[in-house]
Amino acid sequence: MRAVRFCLTLRQSPQLFQPAIIHIEYGTPLALNPLTVHISAAPDPAKVLIIDDEIGPRESLRMLLKPSYQVHTAENVETGLQLLQEKRPDTIVMDIRMPGMNGIDGLRKIREIDPHLSVIMFTGFGALETAQEALRLGANDYINKPFDAVQMREVIGRNVERTRLQRQSEATAHELQELNERLRNELAQKERLASLGQASAEFVHDLSNPLTIVWGYVQ
């Protein structure tokens, strides 16, 4: 019986600290084609910022989201605003009732920093009117405490996708604006060169015509 030999090749990911996506390619054993495993870095997971002064709900939500997201937490709005600018999360989950600056005031501050970031308000029993006020002020969603795990995952996933699509749209619009500006500048430059070329052609034509030179001198 003829032995079949396989060759395994590993291509190391340049970013070992990130999760990797493994692609496997193989040929027919009889042809002795090598089996190759390509390891490439996976895309960065989305970031979620949780702002809640209560450690119980904050840590419960962090543990729920940790397998799928990069999760950052803050126990007050001031710390949350600092993390917002440092980490640039894709979604914020924020409690409404907190000592000091509350969630409504925090929402106003967040909208000044990032008008398009998805913000989900965390609300306890009896705060429905406040949650509705938050929606009027620009919150994208709200979830009651205690939260349902399945619902929470769905709401966060939907809002993360919304933020990423919005940012992608903004980036595309910015690129198109830059391209349009560059094309306008190139067109203006070509028009100037064409104008100079036309003037040069007329000047050469005048030099080649003695009558024009004489007439110009007489005038």
Q: How would you describe this protein?
A:
The protein is of the alpha/beta class and 219 residues long. The chain has 2 domains: 8-41, no CATH class; 47-166, Rossmann fold (3-Layer(aba) Sandwich). Helix content is 50%, strand content 19%. It has helices at 55-65, 77-87, 103-113, 128-136, 149-207, 210-218; strands at 8-11, 20-25, 35-41, 47-51, 70-74, 91-95, 118-123, 141-144. It has a 5-stranded parallel sheet, sandwiched between helices. Helix 4 links the parallel strand 7 (118-123) and strand 8. Helix 2 (77-87) runs parallel beside helix 3 (103-113). The radius of gyration is 31 Å and the shape is elongated. Residues 1-20, 28-33 and 211-218 have low confidence and may be disordered.
Short account of what is shown:
By secondary structure, the protein is of the alpha/beta class. The protein has helices at residues 55-65, 77-87, 103-113, 128-136, 149-207, 210-218; strands spanning 8-11, 20-25, 35-41, 47-51, 70-74, 91-95, 118-123, 141-144.
Chain-averaged pLDDT: 76
Can you tell me the overall shape? elongated
| Beta-strand residue percentage | 15-25%
Give the tally of β-strands: 8
The CATH homologous superfamily of the largest domain corresponds to: Response regulator
**Helical content band:** 40-55%
Largest sheet: 5 strands, parallel
Strand order of the largest sheet: 5-4-6-7-8
